[in-house]
């Protein structure tokens, strides 16, 4: 059996690792790709009756962070297709951050998006980015329409007359053919059947058909333009776009009548914009499992919930809110920051909110606990290390020796303080230690440089040992992530109101290590 194959990884008596090769094989065997529990993204899109062959990629290497562009491109397309399948136009983006995903869903896909983040700074930043996006969106679309108009005039006379129109029936595969996911009711897919007979088109209708083709091309080109707009968001400073009008007159010099006229025109413009479906509203609120969304989103309607790298317990709470609220028809959640998860069986402390782990009843009955060290390991990026992006061994070594100093000299064994990115701002190990002690509010006035360097020299020969240890943690990381993600999937499988749920790999793990999404769709009520 497979278990027998891996019995010689650890010594039975000492429990120490004795076979690194088998350890690596076992870790690979229990990773998500090997277990075969994920539903391919292509299968999900196909089941949602989506033709994603014609989509064009965002120009990630010009202005915007390559990682964020990749994430927004892939996830926004999937979210739009799920929303269309569920027949909803409202999206709740939990932990929306700076609003990259929310803005793009709104502008590109005409969805009404509420982005909720606990940080007021993020919300304000999202407002500013959205303002700049709207201005540049209109500019790009205007330029695109002007170009297309000239193409319209050039091509209208050259286009041959179509003799007939044909409509093809679209065959649909079930969302999931995997027998392992058949414990829940299989989703019913409605066949999209379009029956159109051959129709002779008169010469007089040629220009009308040409118009239809050009409109389709216009929409395609506007889609490309929208991708260029997304790339601009991250490069513009906050004051790059100024509010301006067609008139350059000083407002103080305007007569009262003209001021009133301009105010009325402005109000009409705002009213017109508010009636559009593609709106984005950044909001500030702290989300828990008990959060009542209708208190935050006053016009809450049938919607879907999304989360792109929701931190710690927020990913678990997103799923709990989804299962509890009938208005939420679907969820697409990508979690991160596993080390910040709260664990029910870790330290038995009182916890005022729902625990982040475990979620499913099976692991609760087992009293399962990962522990902080394991959760920290789950955050490591095996795929990046595999392509040569090595671990920051020196900074990890600095941090390890610092901990020894704090324990032996200051007697501190546990602290809620953080040294953050002190390593990148330090010129030497001595500088690193002193800056870190200051951050931790520990007095270093009695600590000479020679004492600090003594600790460095004492442990310097163990740096390779530390690197090897961290490499083993990287190899084990996917196994711990599997446990956390399967816990969330099993929680959804335990619910009676879920039609389908699955794990889907959305992103390239080298670009975005936390690449797995938990997706679920509610059962539709029978009338």
From TrEMBL:
<dbReference type="InterPro" id="IPR052220">
    <property type="entry name" value="METTL25"/>
</dbReference>
<feature type="domain" description="Methyltransferase">
    <location>
        <begin position="67"/>
        <end position="344"/>
    </location>
</feature>
<dbReference type="Pfam" id="PF13679">
    <property type="entry name" value="Methyltransf_32"/>
</dbReference>
<dbReference type="InterPro" id="IPR029063">
    <property type="entry name" value="SAM-dependent_MTases_sf"/>
</dbReference>
<dbReference type="InterPro" id="IPR025714">
    <property type="entry name" value="Methyltranfer_dom"/>
</dbReference>
<protein>
    <submittedName>
        <fullName>MET25 protein</fullName>
    </submittedName>
</protein>
């Amino acid at each position: 059996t497979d278990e027998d194959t891996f019995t010689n990884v650890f010594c039975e008596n000492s429990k120490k690792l004795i076979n690194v090769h088998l350890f690596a094989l076992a870790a690979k065997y229990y990773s998500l790709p090997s277990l075969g529990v994920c539903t391919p993204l292509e299968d999900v899109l196909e089941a949602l009756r989506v033709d994603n062959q014609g989509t064009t990629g965002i120009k990630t290497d010009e202005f915007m962070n390559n990682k964020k562009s990749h994430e927004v491109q892939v996830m926004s397309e999937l979210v739009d297709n799920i929303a269309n399948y569920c027949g909803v136009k409202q999206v709740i983006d939990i932990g929306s951050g700076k609003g990259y995903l929310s803005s793009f869903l709104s502008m590109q896909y005409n969805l009404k998006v509420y982005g909720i983040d606990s940080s007021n700074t993020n919300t304000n930043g999202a407002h500013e980015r959205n303002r700049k996006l709207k201005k540049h969106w209109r500019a790009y679309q205007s330029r695109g329409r002007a170009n297309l108009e000239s193409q319209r005039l050039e091509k209208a006379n050259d286009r041959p007359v179509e003799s007939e129109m044909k409509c093809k029936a679209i065959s649909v595969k079930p969302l999931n053919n995997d027998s392992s996911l058949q414990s829940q009711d299989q989703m019913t897919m409605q066949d999209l059947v379009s029956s159109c007979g051959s129709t002779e088109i008169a010469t007089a209708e040629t220009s009308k058909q040409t118009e239809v083709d050009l409109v389709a091309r216009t929409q395609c080109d506007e889609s490309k333009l929208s991708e260029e707009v997304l790339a601009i968001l991250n490069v513009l400073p906050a004051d790059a776009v100024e509010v301006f009008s067609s008139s350059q007159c000083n407002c103080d010099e305007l007569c009262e009548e003209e001021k009133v006229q301009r105010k009325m025109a402005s109000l009409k413009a705002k009213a017109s914009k508010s009636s559009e479906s593609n709106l984005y509203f950044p909001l500030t609120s702290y989300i828990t499992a008990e959060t009542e969304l209708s208190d935050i989103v006053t016009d809450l309607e049938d919607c879907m919930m999304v989360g792109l790298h929701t931190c710690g317990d927020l990913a678990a709470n997103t799923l709990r809110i989804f299962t509890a609220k009938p208005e939420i028809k679907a969820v697409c959640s990508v979690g991160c920051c596993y080390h910040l998860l709260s664990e029910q069986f870790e330290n038995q402390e009182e916890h005022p909110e729902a625990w982040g782990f475990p979620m499913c009843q099976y692991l609760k009955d087992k009293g399962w606990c990962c522990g902080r060290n394991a959760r920290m390991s789950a955050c490591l990026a095996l795929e990046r290390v595999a392509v040569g992006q090595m671990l920051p061994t020196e900074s990890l070594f600095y941090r390890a020796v610092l901990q020894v100093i704090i324990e032996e000299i200051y007697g501190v064994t546990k602290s809620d303080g953080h040294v953050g990115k002190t390593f990148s701002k330090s010129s030497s190990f001595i500088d690193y230690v002193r800056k870190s002690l200051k951050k931790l509010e520990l007095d270093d006035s009695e600590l000479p440089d020679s004492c600090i360097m003594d600790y460095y020299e004492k442990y310097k020969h163990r740096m390779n040992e530390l690197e090897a240890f961290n490499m083993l943690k990287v190899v084990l990381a996917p196994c711990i992530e599997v446990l956390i993600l399967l816990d969330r999937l099993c929680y959804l499988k335990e619910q009676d109101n879920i039609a389908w749920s699955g794990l889907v790999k959305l992103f390239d793990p080298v670009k975005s290590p936390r690449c797995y999404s938990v997706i679920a769709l509610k059962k539709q009520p029978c009338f």
